[in-house]
């Protein structure tokens, strides 16, 4: 029987189509993260963005996604998985339509923030649906591998698709393409997923916890993104950092006194979830940060066009997708912990080979051994860490558990990129080509070291469920 104890849960033979919808939702989330990069020059000139403000077309999405994930995860548990999934997909569709029709910079930044909120609802809702529709074990592992492959494809194909759309239809196309996709996902989710019960209005909702957690995390992500450019000692950064600390401190205080806390205390005693949260943060700080430096290497050092840069990510996309499947099969053969050790070791070797292969006159072929090993390790680790995050979690807590793990994913990404940009020296000035090459190489070495440290941190754990 499916893990959902509901008579309306899909039968085993119908689970293929729901999985397609859930994977498509992850594809939309990952596409939306980076499809706008190629369109930024057109957006800047068409809507009158200044060079400094243009970054907020990307950053507004990241800040609100990271800040609202915890709230999105708990809303999924309390209001219903299908209900939140459908509302989030519709939010994506409507905000994307407004974005494609935008005629001012302020409206577009606001649209990106709303899209981020949509992502913070859609991600935990989709992950929670997978973890409850599919039985713990091989069935769920296969579903997570397929879901992960869709996300990997979106991240890597986003630049290529963005280049095609901008060349053919202009910058609005990168927003308008989401409208039919998200609308179809919302419609399909309405009919394919188990119906939710009535909204549990009689249950307590930790509103103070929700407000303080969302404010604290949103401000924290904002600081980590904005500080490298504005300066860590700037007045605005220090003020937001202080507000973040105050908000998160209040959140901890509220949670210890709430009858129905936003984050149930027993989850913080679950070693597997805690280990997975550490792993998601490390994953996004290392594996997920490298494409930023690869893009700099391709476009600035070697002068690739936007289309050529997108094409250069085709190999990583295919290998990451294959890695998610390899990870799923390896978990069945050797367990989560052993698989994660192997996948992270593979990724570390790949990052090291990439660092050694970067050169001013090197060919793309020279990068392939490092790209293949890094991408294989990335795909397998992605599958393994979500298996670890869901294992042993009760169905009624799957949403908040997904929200916790995905929040550390977003925060880890912001922290990792800020640290790596500082190490590489690519954010504070206009480096020479030689300086940029040295910086990209240094970032790759640090990424390799970070992945190795993560693998070492897994060694004390004994049971697969402990990660």
From TrEMBL:
<protein>
    <submittedName>
        <fullName>Multidrug resistance protein Stp</fullName>
    </submittedName>
</protein>
<keyword id="KW-0812">Transmembrane</keyword>
<feature type="transmembrane region" description="Helical">
    <location>
        <begin position="205"/>
        <end position="226"/>
    </location>
</feature>
<feature type="transmembrane region" description="Helical">
    <location>
        <begin position="171"/>
        <end position="193"/>
    </location>
</feature>
<dbReference type="Pfam" id="PF07690">
    <property type="entry name" value="MFS_1"/>
</dbReference>
<dbReference type="GO" id="GO:0046677">
    <property type="term" value="P:response to antibiotic"/>
</dbReference>
<keyword id="KW-0813">Transport</keyword>
<feature type="transmembrane region" description="Helical">
    <location>
        <begin position="400"/>
        <end position="422"/>
    </location>
</feature>
<keyword id="KW-1133">Transmembrane helix</keyword>
<dbReference type="InterPro" id="IPR011701">
    <property type="entry name" value="MFS"/>
</dbReference>
<feature type="transmembrane region" description="Helical">
    <location>
        <begin position="304"/>
        <end position="322"/>
    </location>
</feature>
<feature type="transmembrane region" description="Helical">
    <location>
        <begin position="113"/>
        <end position="134"/>
    </location>
</feature>
<keyword id="KW-0472">Membrane</keyword>
<feature type="domain" description="Major facilitator superfamily (MFS) profile">
    <location>
        <begin position="18"/>
        <end position="467"/>
    </location>
</feature>
<feature type="transmembrane region" description="Helical">
    <location>
        <begin position="146"/>
        <end position="165"/>
    </location>
</feature>
<feature type="transmembrane region" description="Helical">
    <location>
        <begin position="232"/>
        <end position="253"/>
    </location>
</feature>
<feature type="transmembrane region" description="Helical">
    <location>
        <begin position="54"/>
        <end position="72"/>
    </location>
</feature>
<dbReference type="GO" id="GO:0005886">
    <property type="term" value="C:plasma membrane"/>
</dbReference>
<keyword id="KW-0046">Antibiotic resistance</keyword>
<feature type="transmembrane region" description="Helical">
    <location>
        <begin position="364"/>
        <end position="388"/>
    </location>
</feature>
<dbReference type="GO" id="GO:0022857">
    <property type="term" value="F:transmembrane transporter activity"/>
</dbReference>
<feature type="transmembrane region" description="Helical">
    <location>
        <begin position="84"/>
        <end position="101"/>
    </location>
</feature>
<dbReference type="InterPro" id="IPR020846">
    <property type="entry name" value="MFS_dom"/>
</dbReference>
<keyword id="KW-1003">Cell membrane</keyword>
<feature type="transmembrane region" description="Helical">
    <location>
        <begin position="442"/>
        <end position="461"/>
    </location>
</feature>
<dbReference type="InterPro" id="IPR036259">
    <property type="entry name" value="MFS_trans_sf"/>
</dbReference>
<feature type="transmembrane region" description="Helical">
    <location>
        <begin position="273"/>
        <end position="298"/>
    </location>
</feature>
<feature type="transmembrane region" description="Helical">
    <location>
        <begin position="334"/>
        <end position="358"/>
    </location>
</feature>
């Amino acid at each position: 029987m499916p893990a959902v104890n509901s008579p309306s849960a899909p039968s085993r033979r119908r689970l293929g189509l729901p999985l397609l919808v859930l994977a498509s939702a992850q594809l939309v989330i990952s596409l939306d993260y980076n499809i706008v990069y190629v369109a930024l020059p057109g957006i800047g000139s068409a809507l009158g963005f200044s060079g400094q403000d243009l970054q907020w077309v990307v950053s507004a999405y990241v800040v609100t996604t990271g800040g609202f994930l915890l709230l999105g995860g708990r809303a999924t548990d309390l209001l219903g998985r299908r209900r939140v999934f459908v509302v989030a997909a519709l939010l994506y569709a409507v905000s994307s339509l407004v974005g494609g029709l935008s005629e001012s910079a302020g409206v577009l930044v606001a649209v990106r923030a709303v899209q981020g909120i949509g992502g913070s609802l859609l991600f935990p809702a989709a992950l929670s649906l997978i973890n409850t529709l599919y039985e713990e074990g091989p069935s769920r592992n296969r579903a997570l591998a397929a879901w992960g492959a869709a996300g990997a494809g979106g991240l890597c194909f986003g630049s290529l698709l963005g280049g095609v759309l901008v060349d053919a239809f202009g910058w609005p196309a990168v927003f308008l393409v989401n409208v039919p996709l998200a609308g179809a996902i919302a419609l399909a989710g309405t009919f394919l997923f188990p119906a939710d019960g009535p909204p549990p209005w009689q249950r307590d909702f930790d509103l103070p916890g929700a407000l303080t957690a969302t404010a604290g995390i949103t401000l924290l992500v904002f600081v980590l993104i904005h500080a490298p450019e504005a300066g860590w000692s700037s007045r605005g950064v220090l003020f937001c950092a202080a507000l973040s600390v105050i908000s998160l401190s209040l959140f901890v205080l509220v949670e210890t006194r709430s009858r129905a806390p936003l984050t149930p205390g027993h989850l913080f005693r679950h070693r597997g979830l805690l280990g997975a949260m550490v792993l998601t943060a490390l994953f996004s700080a290392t594996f997920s940060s490298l494409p930023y430096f690869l893009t700099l290497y391709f476009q600035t050092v070697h002068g690739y066009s936007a289309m050529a840069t997108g094409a250069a990510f085709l190999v990583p996309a295919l290998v990451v997708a294959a890695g998610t499947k390899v990870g799923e099969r390896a978990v069945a053969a050797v367990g989560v912990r052993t698989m994660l050790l192997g996948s992270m070791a593979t990724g570390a070797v790949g990052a090291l080979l990439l660092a050694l292969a970067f050169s001013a006159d090197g060919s793309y072929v020279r990068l392939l051994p490092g790209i293949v090993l890094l991408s294989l390790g990335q795909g397998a680790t992605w599958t393994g860490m979500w298996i670890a995050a869901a294992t042993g979690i009760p169905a009624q807590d799957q949403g908040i558990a997904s929200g916790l793990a995905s929040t550390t994913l977003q925060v880890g990404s912001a922290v990792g990129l800020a640290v790596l940009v500082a190490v590489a020296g690519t954010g504070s000035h206009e480096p020479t080509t030689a300086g940029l090459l040295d910086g990209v190489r240094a970032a790759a070495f640090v990424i390799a070291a970070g992945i190795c440290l993560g693998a070492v941190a897994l060694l004390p754990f004994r049971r697969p469920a402990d990660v």
